[in-house]
Amino acid sequence: MSDDLASAFDAEIDELPDSVDRAAVRRMGLVACVLDESVRVPGTEFRVGLDPLLGVLPGTGDVVSGALSMYVVVESARLGVSYGTLLRMLANVAIDVVGGSVPVVGDLFDAAWKANTRNLDLALADLADDGRAPMEDAVEIEIE
Asked: What is the domain range of residue 79?
């Protein structure tokens, strides 16, 4: 990861509860970066990764990219991310694979959609919320 990305990522990790495996979160960040943002397009601030490059391979490129994207989802499940968040993450991967499979336009879609970065953000938000206090409007029922 570049210095800017790494420092922003470290700040997000610091906000997580102590119970979260930071090494796993860093691995997820590395995979997301390699697949979505590892190379800056010259003359711009836009970044692309391996995902749109794999999409150039007809037929198999998007499937391979989708399989690699599943690492972030599986690791998130292992870390205890909620079921609803995991469904959103799976939807992001499915949209990435289907959208990326369209010839020519799909490669541009892959470069812009960045499913892995989206999924990492979803996982970090879910893991950070895990340590929150219960809702104020919650109703307690005593059982005697």
From this structure: 3-129
